[in-house]
Amino acid sequence: MVLQETTPGVMVRAEKIVKRFGPLTVLDGVDLAVKRGQVVVIIGPSGSGKTTLLRCLNHLEKIDGGRIYIEDELIGYREVNGQLVEDKEANIARIRAQVGFVFQRFNLFPHKTALQNVMEAPIHVLHHPVEEVRERALSLLAKVGLAEKCDAFPHKLSGGQQQRVAIARALAMNPKLMLFDEATSALDPELVGEVLKVMKQLAEEGMTMVVVTHEMDFAREVADHVIFMDKAQIVEQGPPEQLFDLSENERTRNFLRKL
């Protein structure tokens, strides 16, 4: 599938993405289109390229082939005489600031409170006024159910609470797009639900989301579009009911059966 140069209503467009780590090809000609307000869930076995694809979408990993656009703006590269060259870091940072990323590990600053963690980037990256940022940060902590934990340091928070702070921190940048990389996989089972609840709420509010997860119930219930990846490629994709209940692809069926 070759995507058109511009696609109305599409937030993310990836064309023929190739990524290698030495001799290993981890993405092999991957195409992806994510519409505004859409929740796209990526599933598949470990090592299939899911996390790498997510990291390529905001140029945390440099691609070896293809192109990625965020709202029709090329990320990571610019075109010079028909050739792609590495873009200026300032341009990459500007586009990346529009993309929230929630990692498997929470990556909070251990010496800062929950509130300070959420305030950090809007103050130092966006240079917004401190009081304005503080007010929004408190609102976001309340949104993820942690208003009373604003002065707590990460080591005083459960894993689920830390991940919810991480989501609030990403939202503090007013992103157009949210990427979630196995956001619940490092959590104890009893804490998974509180994070998925916040993610479901964001989906209901119309946030554009790309989610890598092993939570099949979440994928079935929340996703607009599900992608199954295996061996560096997209094997099958479609609405959740098609992928989970009507798939005719043997690799997809085998993966789901093992779950």
Structural overview:
This protein has 259 residues and is an alpha/beta fold. The protein has helices at 50-57, 89-96, 114-124, 130-143, 159-171, 189-204, 216-222, 240-245, 250-258, and strands at 10-21, 24-35, 39-43, 65-70, 73-74, 77-80, 83-86, 99-102, 177-181, 208-212, 225-230, 233-238. A hairpin with a 2-residue loop joins strand 6 and strand 7.
Topology:
Elements: E1 10-21, E2 24-35, E3 39-43, H1 50-57, E4 65-70, E5 73-74, E6 77-80, E7 83-86, H2 89-96, E8 99-102, H3 114-124, H4 130-143, H5 159-171, E9 177-181, H6 189-204, E10 208-212, H7 216-222, E11 225-230, E12 233-238, H8 240-245, H9 250-258
Parallel strand pairs: 3-10, 3-11, 8-9, 9-10
Antiparallel strand pairs: 1-2, 1-4, 4-5, 6-7, 11-12
Helix pairs in contact: 3-4, 3-5, 4-5, 5-6
Q: Which sheet architecture does the biggest sheet show?
A: 6 strands, mixed
Are there runs of 5+ residues with pLDDT below 50, and where?
1-5
Structural Rg: 19 Å
User: What form results from the Cα inertia axes?
Assistant: globular
Query: Helix/strand/pairing class, anyone?
Result: alpha/beta
Number of strands: 12
- Report the total helices: 9
Mean pLDDT: 93
Compute the separation of the termini in Å: 30 Å
Assign a percent range to the helix content.
Answer: 25-40%
Q: What letter string, H or E per element, gives the SSE order?
A: EEEHEEEEHEHHHEHEHEEHH
Range of strand content: 25-35%
Strand order of the largest sheet: 8-9-10-3-11-12
